[in-house]
Amino acid sequence: MANYVIRGGEEGKARLRIVSDALWPTTHNLLNSAGIKPGMSCLDVGCGGGNGTLAMARLVGRSGMATGIDMDGAKMQMAQQDAEREKIANASFRVLDAGSPAYGEGYDLVYARLLLTHLSDPLSTLKLMINAARPGGIIVVEDMDHSAIFCYPACPALEKHLSQYDRMVRSNGADPDIGPKLPALFRQAGLADLHFSHVQPAFMAGEAKQIHQITLENVAPAAIAAGLASEAEIDALSSELDGFAQNPETIMSYPRIFQLWAQRN
Questions:
Q1: Mean pLDDT, residues 147-158
Q2: Rounded to whole angstroms, how far apart are CA atoms 120 and 134?
Q3: Which pLDDT score, from 0 to 100, does residue 1 have?
Q4: Sheet containing 251-253: which strands, arranged edge to edge?
Q5: How much is the pLDDT for 4?
Q6: pLDDT tens across 155-188, in order?
Q7: Is the pLDDT of residue 95 over 80?
Q8: Cβ 146 vs Cβ 255: under 8 Å
Q9: Is the link from the previous residue into 255 a cis peptide, with omega within 30 of 0?
Q10: Under 8 Å between Cβ of 144 and 117
Q11: Distance of CA 265 to the CA centre of its chain
């Protein structure tokens, strides 16, 4: 995860809160389908800002526990503060890279959203997730097909931003279009009896509609460092994306999100 291209810290957490809010209705449906229930012990791998972890903590109730792990220490500190402020005592956060074998074990449900897309060896991390689950425990993954993003009408700035993002991610050995490959990845990791769905949120208004502009601003340092764009070019793209998002007649989508879950043998 050393080559993660999106800004971390407070700005990164603010972006992830928007993503989490936009995806939560479909994530909630997925977790319910997978069988989350009160009393469960859950692990959220690569939990980012911790919004999903806190939501799972609410679902499993006081008799359960939700633990979030992420390599970004600043985000983990802020997530723990969120838990304390919201009086969610059954949520905890640890600083841990997704590639570390120190997850712990015996979890009833192990979850990751938009994590594997950033990894050069997603299969190894999926195996670590499986090992962290108890026998019969549930593995749940949501990840994206970045190529499926759409807008209406056409927006050249979006096309340029998406191309830059893809080039950065692929140059680090990761896969922005890992979503459709998840079933094969699950089977390679030894999981069978897969449960599959996919969703794609799209918006005509609100902060979720601005996610690509916000992502552009969060990857700008990496894009400039990689020589993919100048600061002036980033500013021009950001301005065009903002104008597009502010237009009530336009539509902006998120990536298509592939959702899988299976039980550990």
A1: 98
A2: 26
A3: 47
A4: 151-152, 251-253, 202-203
A5: 67
A6: 999 999 999 999 999 999 999 999 999 999 999 9
A7: yes
A8: yes
A9: no
A10: yes
A11: 26
Query: Which residues face 144 on adjacent strands?
Result: 257
Q: What is the pLDDT of residue 12?
A: 84
SS3 labels along the chain: CCCCCCCCHHHHHHHHHHHHHHHHHHHHHHHHHHCCCCCCEEEEECCCCCHHHHHHHHHHCCCCEEEEEECCHHHHHHHHHHHHHCCCCCEEEEECCCCCCCCCCCEEEEEEECCHHHCCCHHHHHHHHHHHEEEEEEEEEEEEEHHHCCEECCCHHHHHHHHHHHHHHHHCCCCCCCHHHHHHHHHHCCCCCCEEEEECCEECCCHHHHHHHHHHHHHHHHHHHCCCCCHHHHHHHHHHHHHHHHCCCCEEECCEEEEEEEECC
Which tokens belong to 98?
A: 């997704």
Q: Is the dihedral of CA 146, 47, 182, 193 positive or negative?
A: negative
Percent of the chain with pLDDT over 70: 97
Give the chain's mean pLDDT.
Answer: 95
Give the total residue count for the chain: 265
Sign of CA dihedral 198, 170, 2, 187: positive
Angle among Cα 14, 15, 19 to the nearest 5 degrees reads 120
